[in-house]
Design a protein that fits this description.
Order of helices and strands: HHEHHHEHHEHHEEHH
Number of strands: 5
Number of helices: 11
Strand order of the largest sheet: 1-3-5
Strand content: 5-15%
Shape: elongated
């Protein structure tokens, strides 16, 4: 189990049944089809470059120059859009017949919402509005061209980045009973089995395509059509 923390390896060696129960669990991640080729070669990474750096710089400039000056506005842009986040996995099999409210990276959605709003703001210069419009159109094209789909990926729970995150904070050395060991792996995510945060990279060898569902261009852009609060303060 290369890359897995020694205390976790020791726990699995002491309790083979817990290892098997953990290994048999299924984990999933939904994404847009445009990201699948990159994931298949580079894996899932929490610091994925979803948009050019100059677009983030532009948002901060506009926010500090034109918004109400509330520190919370700049903090929102910095933390929810610019800062890389976690990879989120689910222990529930995706219902591919359902209408998806997710699948397009959240940070990208928030950035596009901002660009859509700023492209219409009269207080911005024409050059700034045009920058926002071009950025939005570039992302719109990337998300809707070809045959876009929401893709469900299956992730091996024994991937080092996954197992280290999920079991790394569990006091495994204090477990001396197989029943407790089984409980530890079955309830490792507590109440968050549908929203499991992973802070580490997941290598491509631990990821396979489980299923996919085509989406319309309108559906791909649906979650973008909402003006963020920080941009609403700009006229």
């Amino acid at each position: 189990m290369s890359g897995v923390r020694p205390e976790i390896q020791g726990f699995f060696e002491r309790f083979p049944a817990a290892h098997d129960a953990y290994a048999d669990s299924k984990l999933y991640h939904l994404t847009h089809s445009r990201y699948v080729p990159g994931i298949q070669t580079e894996g899932l990474r929490p610091n994925a470059d979803l948009f050019p750096a100059e677009q983030g710089v532009f948002l901060l400039h506009v926010c500090s120059s034109y918004s109400s000056g509330q520190p919370s506005d700049i903090e929102y842009v910095q933390n929810r859009i610019l800062n890389s986040g976690n990879i989120y996995l689910s222990a529930t099999v995706p219902d591919m017949s359902d209408e998806f409210g997710y699948g397009i990276p959240e940070r990208l959605v928030f950035l596009m919402r901002g660009m859509a709003a700023l492209a219409t703001k009269s207080s911005l210069t024409e050059a700034e509005r045009n920058f926002a419009a071009r950025a939005l159109e570039g992302h719109r094209t990337a998300l809707t061209e070809g045959e876009p789909a929401i893709v469900a990926l299956q992730v091996d729970p024994l991937a080092p980045g996954v197992v280290n995150n999920r079991l790394g904070n569990v006091p495994l050395d204090g477990i001396h009973d197989e029943t407790l060991a089984l409980d530890a792996v079955r309830y490792v995510d507590g109440p968050y089995g549908n929203n499991i945060p992973i802070q580490s990279a997941i290598e491509p060898g631990f990821i396979t395509v489980f299923d996919q569902k085509p989406i319309t261009a309108e559906r791909a852009m649906q979650t973008v059509n909402a003006e963020p609060g920080w941009a609403a303060a700009i006229r």
